[in-house]
Amino acid sequence: MSDEEDDSTPAVELGEHTPVEGAPLARVTSRLHWPIQKSEIDRLEGDSEIRTPDGPRTISTVLEDVDETYFERHQEFEKHVRDVVGTGPVATADSGASAVDESTSSE
Known about the structure:
The chain is globular and about 45 Å long. The protein has helices at about 25-30, 40-45, 60-65, 75-85, 100-105; strands spanning about 35, 50, 55-60, 70. The protein is about 35% helix and about 5% strand. With about 110 residues, the chain is mainly alpha-helical. The protein has a two-stranded antiparallel ribbon. A two-stranded antiparallel sheet has the order 2-3.
């Protein structure tokens, strides 16, 4: 390892930190074991907030709109959740503007 590789500056500039409320859906589903019942997901992760295009929502409130009661795989669960919450840019905590809108604005 050379001295240059020890440099503490990142190889890629990350930009300013913009907080986003809620956890990524994948992080929540990774904590569960599959297959699993809807009621068990609600019991274990119901209070967890996930990121959605309309702001953070708890798993419990999302599950109220999911008709399925049993999930074989996490992909199946995530598809049902995304059918309820939608997909798209997630609003940042500071401004309420979507992350995509903020990064493309020119000031």
